[in-house]
Amino acid sequence: MKTYKIDLIIEDHDEIGIDQIIDVIESARYPNRCISPEVIGVMESDIGEWHDDHPLNLMSGRYEYINKIEWQEVDEE
């Protein structure tokens, strides 16, 4: 299975602040277009077969695992 790492540029038009921006992104709701996300880069990695005990499925050690992933740039078409 592949996983993707995406960098974003966000203009905070309504000055809602970083905590609210994160909440809006993670909730996948863009009320009143209060932020304007733009993907500026995509990286991918094959993380093997997915299962309930996969490190990305566990909160403990998740970010440590992410930092060890070998990412490769995705060529945009």
Kindly describe this structure:
The structure is a single chain. Helices cover 22% and strands 30% of the residues. 0% of the residues are buried. The two termini are 21 Å apart. The chain is globular, with a radius of gyration of 15 Å. The protein has one domain (2-73). The mean pLDDT is 83. It is an alpha+beta fold and 77 residues long. The chain has a three-stranded antiparallel beta sheet with strand order 1-2-3, with no helix packed on it.
List keywords for this structure.
alpha+beta, 77 residues
Task: Give the structure's gist in a few sentences.
This protein is α+β, with helices and mostly antiparallel strands. It has helices spanning 18-27, 62-68, and strands at 2-11, 36-46, 72-73.
